[in-house]
Design a protein that fits this description.
The protein is α+β, with helices and mostly antiparallel strands. The strands form 5 sheets. Strands 1, 2, 3, 4, 5, 6 and 7 form a 7-stranded antiparallel sheet that branches. A 5-stranded antiparallel sheet has the order 9-8-12-11-10. The protein has a 5-stranded antiparallel sheet with strand order 14-13-17-16-15, with helices on both faces.
Length: 749
């Protein structure tokens, strides 16, 4: 065995001996502390039991004297009744009982006489004599039913009906001179008399004191609580202990005559000559509080002693471990390095710097290159032929010798089967004892380089394809631009044609409407001309009569009246036509009143339906002013009315149209045009704004009316348009427009 081995074993034995010493010392200290604590607890409980017995003896003596005093009072009254009452007259007996004065006694509250029928007469220095019923009290019932019993009976405590003070009754049977029972005499002991002494004892010792009847009900308790007085504890198993032969004793319980939770130590003593027991109780927490303090001190001292032994031993072990650690760290470092080196997933090679021979390789390197360990160790890389370019190896070695490291140099190495690999090589040089070594690590990136090459080739192909498609798209876009320009030009031309057609229709309607008033004017004028000529001839011949002049005057007045009405109608038509015609032809933006402008437009549209059964109703608000394009707005109304007459009322002889305007916001107006015509199908409604869509193809319909309306609303007036319609239920067109049209809008847009 070598000397280092002997030293290590000796250190281990010393360490074990110290550990055993610490354990033995700690166990000894703990056992001695535990024994002392147990003994102290036992002595504390024994001492408390002795103190409790002393207390109950004093309390028993006090209670016995009080009850004896009450019994002596009862005996005096009984002797007086026996000596002076030969009959059973209750009044006489009551007078004898009432003649006894108990005012000199601090603990006696009242004296009462109970007749054989249970009626009680109570006399007390605290209140006037008064009758009450006492037959329901158990001790009274017992004495009335057992007149042969000459002993005094202690009854259940009760609250006085007169002043609600609690009392303990003591009673006995009364006999007349013929030794016949004539009732019961009872004396009430003040419960507060017991409470004064009991509360002082309970408060000084943090205990509870109870005066308990052998029948199982509580006579008095301190600390005083009304819920404890007269409580029945006859079912408590501890009464068996109290009913035994011993006059005094002790026991442990959690809830004998107390509601507080926790273990308590009870000591008791029976009263001689009375069925009453005095019980003194203290909870274990109060009894053992001093013991717990002493125990805490003992435990702290024991803990300190054990801790001191452990700390001293720890320092000894610490120096021993340092000696062992020096030897173990060398072995652990070697094992860890070798395990980490061999199990690393990265290929590693450990090479001697002086001769370039491989000192060690890990499993990952062997798997990558396909060699066995014995084929590599002791050989150089040049001998194994793993460098495709030996000059590259010399460059790497030179850098490591100069800088002490290389990082991620791309090299090409050969597997055993001659397959070339592209690797990223890193290297570090370090001193291991007297020998300098170089650690190489490799990362095979052959697949990454192949993938990068494939990606570059794909990118070049994609760039060529994109360029070719871009050229094709540019040509297609140029053709589409030319086609779009042609379509826009055609749409503009169709829009002008549509506007001119609407204006022509307006001119024709106004001209037809002017024909009637102007014809009436010509007829009236020619008639007046003939009458004036006849009047002139009669004047020249001197045949002018008063009746002729009067008739001419009447005809002239009627003619001029007809003439003015016709000319006024013609003037209104011409003024409205001029305003609408100027708005639709000039496309000028101006401020206008909505109600006035729409009334003028609808007036010019009257010839389209005047001689038909169709009607147009206007519901327009007052004082709504717009800054917009009245011509474009008038063209909307013209198209709505034209579509309703041409499409909505197709096949119908009557129809109602309504144009309603309302302010939906302070800066927005909504136009509602409705008709009760045939309506539209869902397909027609969805395509109503498409250009060149018409249900009158080949019958004069261009299919641009509603498309023009849509473009005017969106592009010129800056609003929104919506059509709601279903087959057979008419059409509702809603146009929402700003009161101020956008500056960029123009009817030519």
């Amino acid at each position: 065995m070598t000397q280092p081995g002997i030293s290590t074993r000796a250190l281990s034995r010393t360490r074990l001996a110290l550990l055993l010493f610490v354990v033995a010392t700690s166990v000894t200290i703990a056992a001695q502390t535990w024994w002392a604590v147990a003994q102290d607890r036992r002595q504390t409980l024994t001492s408390e039991t002795t103190n409790g017995l002393v207390a109950v003896r004093l309390l028993e003596e006090h209670a016995s004297q009080t009850l004896q005093d009450a019994v002596h009072t009862l005996d005096r009254v009984a002797r007086a009744v026996h000596a002076s009452t030969p009959t059973n007259d209750p009044d006489q007996i009551r007078k004898v009982v009432a003649s006894h004065d108990i005012g000199h006694s601090r603990h006696l509250k009242a004296l009462q006489y109970v007749t054989p029928q249970g009626m009680s007469w109570i006399s007390s220095p605290d209140y006037p004599t008064h009758p009450t019923q006492a037959s329901e009290r158990s001790h009274i019932q017992y004495l009335l039913n057992h007149p042969e019993d000459h002993t005094a009976q202690v009854g259940h405590p009760y609250a006085s009906a007169y002043d609600s003070q609690w009392v303990i009754p003591v009673a006995r049977t009364l006999y007349n001179t013929a030794d016949q029972p004539v009732g019961v005499v009872s004396v009430d002991i003040r419960l507060s008399y017991f409470g004064t002494l009991y509360s002082r004892v309970a408060k000084e010792n943090n205990a509870s004191v109870t005066l308990l009847s052998d029948e199982g009900f509580i006579l008095a308790r301190s600390p005083f609580e009304a819920r404890y007085v007269n409580r029945d504890v006859a079912d408590a198993p501890q009464l068996v202990t109290l009913g035994g032969g011993a006059m005094e004793g002790s026991f442990n319980d959690e809830s004998f005559v107390d509601d507080d939770e926790g273990q308590k130590l009870y000591t008791y003593r029976k009263l001689g000559g009375f069925p009453v027991t005095t019980v003194y109780a203290r909870d274990h927490e109060s009894v053992l509080a001093p013991w717990e303090q002493r125990t805490t001190q003992r435990l702290l001292l024991a803990a300190f002693s054990i801790a001191l032994v452990i700390v001293l031993t720890y320092f000894l072990l610490f120096y021993i471990r340092r000696l062992q650690g020096t030897q173990r760290s060398l072995r652990d470092s070697e094992a860890k390095f070798f395990g980490m080196f061999r199990q690393s997933p990265v290929p590693h090679t450990l090479v001697r710097d002086n001769d370039g021979q491989v000192a060690e390789v890990n499993d990952a390197w062997l798997q990558l290159f396909g060699y066995q360990l014995n084929e590599v160790v002791g050989h150089t890389a040049l001998e194994l032929g793993i460098w495709q370019n030996p000059a590259q190896r010399q460059e790497v070695v030179t850098k490591i010798s100069t800088l002490g490291r290389v990082d991620r140099i791309e090299v090409v190495q050969l597997r055993r089967d001659g397959q070339a690999m592209i690797c990223l090589m890193s290297g570090r040089s370090f001193q291991a004892g007297s020998e300098k070594l170089i650690l190489f690590s490799l990362m095979d990136v052959t697949r990454q380089r192949e993938a990068e090459l494939e990606i570059r080739n794909m990118n070049q192909q994609l760039e060529r394809r994109v360029q070719a498609r871009t050229e094709t798209l540019e040509i297609a876009n140029h053709d589409l631009s030319e086609a779009l320009a042609s379509v826009r030009a055609m749409q503009s031309e169709l829009l002008r044609s549509e506007k001119l057609a609407a204006l022509g229709s307006l001119v024709a309607g106004v001209a037809h409407e002017l024909n009637t008033p102007i014809g009436n004017c010509v007829t009236v004028g020619s008639t007046l001309q003939h009458q004036v000529a006849d009047l002139a001839i009669a004047f020249e011949k001197g045949e002018l009569r008063r009746s002729t002049l009067q008739k001419f005057t009447e005809n002239a007045m009627r003619g001029t009246e007809i003439l003015m009405r016709a000319l006024t109608r013609a003037s209104e038509l011409i003024r409205s036509f001029k305003r609408v015609a100027v708005d639709q032809s000039s496309d000028q933006r101006r401020r206008f009143d909505v109600k006035t402008m729409l009334q003028e437009v609808c007036l010019t549209l009257e010839p389209m339906y005047k001689n038909t059964a169709y009607q147009l109703q206007l519901v327009l608000p007052d004082d709504v002013e717009m800054d917009s394009f009245p011509g474009a707005l008038g063209q909307l109304i013209t198209n709505f009315v034209s579509n309703a007459l041409q499409h909505g009322f197709e096949g119908r002889t009557t129809g109602q149209m309504q144009l309603r305007a309302e302010l939906t916001r302070p800066d927005q107006v909504a136009l509602h045009f409705t008709d009760d015509g045939v309506g539209m199908s869902d397909d027609t409604r969805n395509r109503v704004f498409d250009p060149f869509f018409t249900t009158k193809l080949g019958q004069g319909g261009s299919g641009l009316g509603m498309n023009i309306v849509y473009n005017i609303v969106r592009d010129v007036l800056g609003g929104e348009i919506d059509v709601a319609s279903s087959a057979g239920k008419g059409t509702h067109i809603t146009v929402t427009l700003p009161l101020c049209a956008p500056q960029s809008g123009s009817p030519d847009a």
